[in-house]
Amino acid sequence: MKLESVPAYWSAESFTDRQFVDDVPAEQKKQMLKTCMNKKTVELPSSYRILNTYEMYFSLKTLEMYAAQTEVFYLAEKENLYLACRSRDTHQLKIHPVKAKDHPWVKVDQETDKKPLQAPTFFPVTEKQRTRHAEQNREAKTEGDFSRRLAPFHNLHMPIAGQVLVILTENNKEHVFVDVPTSFLNQTTDFYLTTRPSGNGANATYHSINFESPGWYLQDRIVMTTYDQEKVDMTYHSLPETLTANQTIPYVTLRAKNDLGDMEEKTLSLRYQPVYQKVKLFEMDDEERHAGIEGFLHPTIESLQEGNIRKIGIMPDELSLALANELKQVTLEQPQGNKPSLQYFTLVDKGKTQTFTVYLKKRAQKTDVYLQDTTSKKGTKLSGELAAQLAEQIEGE
Q: Who wins on pLDDT, 3 or 121?
């Protein structure tokens, strides 16, 4: 089995003025995807300038299947050009050297290279930011939801790699509470506390921490819940100008009585990790972006690329996984029989695909099933039980 990234299944959009604005032409998308899949990488230059920015993602359109989101942006160091790729699954930044002639849609300007931030750095909150927070509070009050953003507000500028964690300390135990990976969506990030009523008739008030980047809400987690208008005492701690790597910096301590009348105390701290590591968030279920390998039956190659649900058979997850495992080690055989109406079988895993042509050979007591890779033209015969299950899926559609 050999899964590959096929450009026809991918979409790409350019990111300008904090918005996704235009679909990328097919040839450009193909070249960017090919480059991101290349294993040749280099270290991030010590100084550079960021040029065009994009996002690519695997998409089966009307099936509403989107996966393997990847941030893509061009960097220039003097006359040298690079393509940086970062998967939203791993958040690992990979730098690929490229030649300008192979990427003619990028204009390598002559501006001065800049040394990037080495750690998250606090900048003064601008008047524009203060106005935005004040307007949000006024709108919330007008609309009657009584959600309120609480000063002080913080303006954090992020480096190009790593993550900022919010650590919750309660009863002398530390928990990872919020994970903010670096991204082109949050190069500048506001964070602050909010308070809002639960709105569920429980006479409860939620106190939350929020991270946002203009136009993008990044994180919103409830820190503490109080009841019957119980007041919360908030003690803000002094923050440094920059977050030193791998140090835990106290941000705010909240104290209030809980619903049992006991005093509750929680401290939120910030920690910057320069190399992204997947973390388990406290009291949250794992959000698996990818539930496992998936299989589809379809009459034409185009019907799957278009995500045409009326023409596609979606395979059971267990059968898709079993077939994928079977295809890892097979004996090559020339296909026999005829193609059914659903003549293609495609496996999808994390944005990579492999498509086979299906052949059915009916015999007295059973149906033999052969699969032939559409690219290499290598074929194999499936084992008895799996062949029966796949034939049943095909003939039942």
A: 121
